[in-house]
Each structure stands twice: as C-alpha cells, then as structure tokens.
Amino acid sequence: MTEGEGLFRDGDLIRVIGREGVLIAAGGAASLLQTAHPKVGQGVYDHSYTADDPSRRLRNTMGWVYTVQFGTREEAEALSALVRKGHEAVTGPDYEANDPELQVWVAATLFAVAAQFYQLLFRRTLSRAELEEFYRQSKVYATILGCPEERMPGTYTEFREYYANMLHTLEVNDTSRAVAEQVLHPKLPGGPLGAPGLAAVRLLTAGLMPAPIREQYGWKWNAGREFRFRLLIKALQVVYPRLPLRVRTIPRDVYLTSTRQMLAKTRRRPAISISTNGYGKDAAA
Q: Is the pLDDT of residue 274 over 60?
C-alpha cells in the first residue's frame, strides 16, 4: 500500500475499523438502510446497475471507501470528484444524488453499521471518546462529496438524535423494497454454489438492521432467526479476530489496487465518471 499524505493516519479509528475486510459482509445492512430513504431508494431504482452487475457496484463502492480511508489525499479527492460528476446525472422529480440531505444520511449509515458490527465482532465496546472520534472522521463520507460540514450533526450526541429520529420517521416504500430484493438476491456467478454465502449475508443484513426499518421492509424475524443470527455472530467472534491482520486486510488491498489502476486510466481519459451507488458510468469498466 502506497504511503503518503492521506486524509487519515494509521492510528485513526476510521482506518483501524475500516481495514477489517469482514465489514463488507455488513454492507447489505448499510446499503438497505440508505435505500430505506425514499429519495435514495428511487435514485438507485431509476439509475442503478445493481441488479445487472452487483459485483461492479461492490467494486466501485469499496474502491471509493478504501481510497478515502487509506489513499493519499490526491487519490481521495480525485476519485471523489469522479463520484460527484457521476452523481450529477442522477436526478428525478424529487431527488438529486448530490443533495446534502441524502449525503448526510448515507454517511450516517456507513458510520452506524461499521461501529455496530465492529463492536459485535471484537466483543469490544467503543468508549464515548472513541465514538466521538470515529464519528468525526466518518463525516468525510459526506463532506468529500461536497456536503457542507455544517449540514452534518455536529457531535456524536447530535448524531444519535438525528439517527434515532430518522429510524422512526423514514417510511420504506415499494421502490425501496424492490431495491432490497435486488440487493439480497443478486445475480452472481456460481449459481447454487453461492447460495449458502448469500443466505448468511441475508441473515446478517436482517440481524444488523434496526427493528423499525426491518419491520417496514417486511422481513421475517422470529426467535429462530434471532438464534441463527447470534450463532453466526458467535462463530465470527471466535474465528475472525484470530486471523492474521494481513489476511483480514486482503479486501482492502485488492480493491485499493484496482481503484488505483482505474485512477491511472482517468488521467488519460478525463471524461470518465464513476458512482459509489451503482449509478451511471463505471470508470473501471
């Protein structure tokens, strides 16, 4: 991994937490929290290639996340400029992908799910000071895309108020449910061979999803599913933290390398745009 002046340092929590490759497994929960917002859901439904090429969407999303977290400042800003350009075309009667309201919500979900899953996996409760630090650093997911920082909840306490209010006021509609169906039942190579893994991801997504949103999506949740979710978490708690760090960070290294190769191409083809939400053109295609 290239060393250089990044937006963050190796000891920063956004890197300590973000380097864990298993967080990708919780991506479904973050993604479907985002699309629970009707405007985000409609934008994804109207413009996304998620249903046709979920692997490409994952590559674009994780490439951007890892570049912001671990890339140089130049790389993070260059890629985010491409994302903003790609989002300019994502508009509809009642939404714009670059709307600060939606950027704040997306950033909030990335922080909330990462903090939740990390603490579960490592059986470690982050202190209030650590949560404040991690939240402050996670604002970058909105601000680097052009969202004014003052639009974000200023402190972790204010974030908690904002997040709780959103969870109890969002109204999941049929469009968001259609997007959820695409995310949870993707067309992946391998057919039946991938079924067990997808079943585990669906269980993890439902278990991590806040109850008010899970209920609105209409997902079945009973004692049996709760038991299987807790069993899955316990298995991950036993196995994952014991893996060597170099193994746990393989996804970061792979996606970051791929994204850097794509960025090198954009220097020769400056008109390319990219999106983290599966909208529009793919700079890595």
A: no
